[in-house]
Amino acid sequence: MVLSATDKTNVKAAWGKVGGQAGAHGAEALERMFLGFPTTKTYFPHFDLSHGSAQVKAHGEKVANALTKAVEHLDDLPSALSKESDLHAHKLRVDPVNFKLLSHCLLVTLAAHHPSDFTPAVHASLDKFLANVSTVLTSKYR
Amino acid sequence: MVLAAADRAAVRALWKKLNNVGVYTAEALERPFLAFPSTKVYFLHLDLNPGSAQVKAHGRKVADALTLAVDRLDDLPRALSALRELHTDRLRVDPVNFKLLCHCLLVTLARHYPGDFSPALQASLHKFLSHVISALAPDCR
Can you give the residue ranges of the Globin domain (chain A) (predicted)? Predict the structure, then answer.
């Protein structure tokens, strides 16, 4: 799934608008995922997953930073995210289905906080972007 | 999977707040047509351009069905049996498409009711929609 020029513009613009809230959005997306899809919690037995958890906030920042890096390297996601790809596939062994769940929750979070920017076209571009990121992160799974 | 009392209460409370469900379902239909183009294959007879009156009309049908579902949470399979026949037996809709519409509906409601759309409400709505999908496509769960 190749990102068109329009998709790249949409993604950069949308992420630009998110700005400093990226970490908070990342944390909220994780919280939505843990509540909506409890099986995802199995990868975080070492975390306090209650509402407002400092560990979830910190992890949200990590996710946000990785996505910011991805937005800056849209033409070269595999090498930009190579370390994260190794981590999720080889060390954490995250089942690929979970990336769809987090992507869904990220999109819901962005829609809730940026309703007027979240047009169907921007939604489509962001979904493609997250699908591409997920593909890279699961590429070494097996 | 039974819908717990807390989930039912949350879904009913939200549904009371929605003053024109048809607007949201029409938007929810527009989103997969753009993001997941394979969904258009079931609507080749409709004008799918943004703002299409036919999509709006179809949105109202979806809205009425969901409102019926909210009223009949205890008896979804029977309440939705005619729709199951339509979608599964006659139209033969690939069940993956129900999940795509579900995602787009949640995104749409989150946009319009951000203050209400807590993680807990999102989880309850998702469970409710999963039950609706089960009633519409029982063989594929």
Answer: 2-142
